[in-house]
Amino acid sequence: MHSYWRTLTLGVVLALGVVLGADLTNLSAQASDPRMGTWKLNVAKSKYSPGPAPQALTVKVEPSGQGEKVIAEFVNADGTRTTTQYTANFDGKDNPLTGSQMADVVSLKRIDARTTERTDKKGDKVAQTLRRVVSQDGKTMTVTTKGTNAQGQAVNNVVVFEKQ
User: Fold this and answer.
1) How far is 96 from 120, CA to CA, in rounded Å?
2) Are 120 and 97 within 8 A, CB to CB?
3) Which residues are CB-neighbours of 155 under 8 A, at least 6 positions away?
4) Is the separation of the CB atoms in 61 and 160 below 8 Å?
5) 104, 96 Cβ separation under 8 angstroms
6) Residue 73 and residue 119: Cα distance in Å, rounded?
7) Out of 48, 83, 91, 128, which could bridge 147 as a Cys pair, Cβ 3.0 to 4.6 Å?
8) What is the pTM of this model?
9) Residues 6 or more apart whose Cβ sits within 8 Å of residue 60
């Protein structure tokens, strides 16, 4: 009976080690994700079609589960403020997006270590796709947005952010 408990205890310890090891690997991968951190819009290097560009935009990206939590704070062209946010995994599944006029859900896919794709939907209809690429040195992020805006106009933005 004594060896049974030793074997059972060893099994539980090994199982915990595997589970905790997986969690540590996930945390390590997230910690090295170049998108994590605070990003500020560089209006001069960005192209908004159609405009106008916001006066300012700060995006905070934090690790969450198998994905990210993002809070974007806009100072719009007219000086009004808007905050959007979501928490989503890189699994292609829809998650709530709050604060946006253009979309109510977001889904994420990881393309590679420095590239992700975000799809925004209003109901079941895709409103916009955002391809987000972090530079090799990790100092800039370029977001290419294609789709339609809240007014139904075609959008083709190339927006440059600098890591803070």
Assistant:
1) 10
2) yes
3) 49, 50, 128, 145, 146, 147, 148, 149
4) no
5) yes
6) 19
7) 128
8) 0.80
9) 37, 38, 39, 70, 71, 72, 73
